[in-house]
Amino acid sequence: xxxxxxxxxLAEPVNDADSAFVRQMVNTTKHRGPDMQATRTxxxxxxxxxxxxxIDLSDNGNMPMCNHDGSIWITFNGEVSNxxxxxxxxxxxxxxxxxxxSDTEVILHLYExxxxxxxxxxxxxxxxxxxxxxxxxxxxxxxxxxxNPFFYVIRNNKxxxxxxxxxxxxxxxxxxxxxEESIFHYFSLAYIPHRSTPFKGIDELRxxxxx
Length: 211
Description:
Blueprint: E1 3-9, H1 16-28, E2 36-41, E3 45-51, E4 65-66, E5 72-80, H2 83-89, H3 92-95, H4 103-114, E6 124-132, E7 137-142, E8 151-155, E9 158-162, H5 180-189, E10 203-204
Antiparallel strand pairs: 1-3, 1-9, 2-3, 4-5, 5-6, 6-7, 8-9, 8-10
Helix pairs in contact: 2-4
């Protein structure tokens, strides 16, 4: 189990308060990743990660992780079960200088190789954010069955995202008002359908959804 967090600005550059808030989100969810907590700030986004080391126990698997020239970054939570198969299929070791043996690094190079369409070949459970500074694009992705959590808030031309709702509750100006319809669905169906969560203003990226 790991955790992801971040802010994406849809307008002006991020500021020191945004960086501080992502550090706060990471600290709130550090129980998800006791081995490492880190953030990285760019012009239009801030990425955060809490890491539980499983596949690659070395620092080479730390996140946020970048490609060789620092133009593409990822913060990742989950496990891609077919990453070795995809690594062989696209001969990634012949094309890229791998620093470690994590599935995160394979995902990063698969994006370089195939663009965002690479997600169609992934198996496993995952939630991640890829930032491509060359194209000035950010991709938020959740696994096909929605196994790994991914919550987000769109407010004041910014997208806030995190692995847990509680990391989002202190967003400036966000109401903590309960969504009574969502609570009703939970006690009726044992789950909350669609993108709703127990709080108004906080949504959930659905399984197989790309933002």
